[in-house]
Specification:
By secondary structure, the protein is an alpha+beta fold. It is built from three helices and three strands; from the N terminus they run βαβααβ. It is elongated, with a radius of gyration of 18 Å.
Length: 67
Amino acid sequence: MSYGTSVPKGYRQAGVYTGRILRGTKPAELPVLQPTNLELAINLKTAKALGLDVPPTLLARADQVIE
């Protein structure tokens, strides 16, 4: 199970920052951003291998379920 930010979205934001710096914006002038969207991913195959039961309510809330 993983609960955190989306890695591709982080890379995308890093590219936006890089582009702004290459266009002349000073790094000190760039705002500090924090993630606003968090994603929940559950690996059912691993959970079953460990003998864990994942409640259906948790599965319903997951953004990604790996079977």
